Amino acid sequence: MNLNFKRLLLLLLTAVTLSCSFERSEQSVQFSATDTTHNLQVASGSIERFYVESKFVDSRNVDIWLPENYSETNQYPVLYMHDGQMLFDSTKTWNNQEWKVDEVAGNLITNNKIPPVIIVGIWNNGDQRFAEYFPEKAINYIPKVQRDSLMKLGPVELKADNYLTFLVKELKTFVDSTYSTKSGTEHSYLMGSSMGGLISIYALSEYPDVFGGAACLSTHWVGSSEAATIIPKAINDYLETNLPAPEDHRIYFDHGTATLDSLYPPYQDIVDQTMRQKGYTSDHWISREFEGGDHSEKSWSARLEIPLQFLFDKE
After folding, report:
1. For 233-260, how does the pLDDT look when each residue is reduced to its tens digit (9 = 90+)?
2. Could you tell me the pTM of the whole model?
3. Which tens digit of pLDDT belongs to each residue from 75-131?
4. Terminus of the chain with fewer CB atoms < 10 Å: N or C?
5. Does domain 3-312 fall into CATH 3.40.50.1820?
């Protein structure tokens, strides 16, 4: 089956379920195409939605934004974004806010500030969001006595490693085989906010040969408790050991100064020092503060063009 015919089936036969043929055991991931043209509004480009039944995580929607004039005769870099239901259409979100990804990316592409890109919005799964987005291996950097005490307060089955396996082994494989992508490390990026910022930097550190950069907005360094310093220290200790080499990767951090973001500056300062110790300079790393910025899609949208241009200016 050639690529054009495969995509035609995906888009037109909404009841058809396609199996990606991964060599993994008897069960394969299922991507079911759904028709979103009647209920999802975008200012530019187009959205293709899939309902994904994964072997590694709970089922969910994935929205794939294609730029204007997408053509399979060209190849496109890809940005993977977390909290995908908050990206495109505020009339469908819980707080009536959105990142305005289609507006911002579309304008940057039109004005030749970034190349045409494909953006993959991975929906979170509600009450599983913390379990999937918290950097799982960072727990190993908490002393055992303190770790045991934390788990007694609220035992959680961490699932970030499974989430990343889904992202890399299932979703990225599907995107690269279905769309005309530049699939290499230097053309594959990550972005998220709050806990989505944590999972973005964790994914980059766990899979440095898969992803070439991550943008982490309002990164929730404090983890599950706004008062404790144990969790941010463990995350930073993990990064000290696992951050990828700066020569081949680009990392963007930012935060505001209002609402939940007001907690972040001291922890971001610690991570910034770690970045310097690992050899990151302004060629490969940005860390910015936005006075008055709060913890909301409205604030992230207002500055979205900055990380997009930083990630894609070398394309």
Report:
1. 999 999 999 999 999 999 999 999 999 9
2. 0.89
3. 999 999 999 998 998 667 777 777 999 999 999 999 999 999 999 999 999 889 999
4. N
5. yes
